[in-house]
Amino acid sequence: MIATRPSYWDEACSQLMRSDRVMRKLIPQHSQTSLQSRGDAFQTLARSVVGQQISVKAAQSVWDRLLGVVGEVTPASLLGQEAQALRQAGLSQRKCEYLQDLAAKFRDGLVHPGQWSDMADEAIIAELVAIRGIGRWTAEMFLIFHLMRPDVLPVDDLGLQRGISERYFSGESVSRSDLREVASAWAPWRSVGTWYIWRSLDPVAVEY
Predict the structure, then answer these.
(1) pLDDT digits 0-9 by tens, 30-71
(2) Is the Cβ–Cβ distance between 42 and 146 less than 8 Å?
(3) Which of 158, 167, 106 has the alpha carbon at shortest distance from 134?
(4) Could you tell me the domains of the chain?
(5) Which of 2, 4, 84, 76 lies closest to 46 in space, CA to CA?
(6) What pLDDT is recorded for position 1?
(7) What pLDDT is attached to residue 63?
(8) What is the 3-state secondary structure (H, E, C) of 9-51?
(9) What is the average pLDDT across 133-143?
């Protein structure tokens, strides 16, 4: 599936560089890349579950091994495997259960991806966190990487916390209120600001 770039990206970058000194330096360093969505809701959520509490590199390694086990990652392919087979990809027992529960919800029509484009961010988060194994962080990753919502601030994301600490506070620990204060200058493009903070830590763009 061909990745797509947000239509608002150039406008957001221009405004961020005008409003924030860090972004003014950071954005030109990564001008050849941008947030992209591959347009597959199930795979985006599955990748987010796989990536919970592990590094981007480790998550990609597990995902690649999962592809080796099931072929294409779909509800049918995951539900067609025993949990033990999925564990061969390096998934924990709990993540295997989460992925298969997610697959069952999609198979049974208990989530409504056709409606998400018209729903507010918090309404989508509420629907997603009702799925076992999907918390607010995973739902926020979905908003950013699949729906490409422009103004999401995932305050519990460790990369965002570390990046803001390094870029704005000389490496000192930061609170959620610190993150929100820094990111207030990014609104209404906080997803974009977050994406460039991630790039300041790892120039290889994560994809879901």
Answers:
(1) 988 899 887 789 998 998 899 888 888 899 999 999 999 999
(2) no
(3) 106
(4) 9-30+152-201 (1.10.1670), 41-145 (1.10.340.30)
(5) 76
(6) 46
(7) 94
(8) HHHHHHHHHHHCHHHHHHHHHCCCCCCCECCCHHHHHHHHHHC
(9) 91
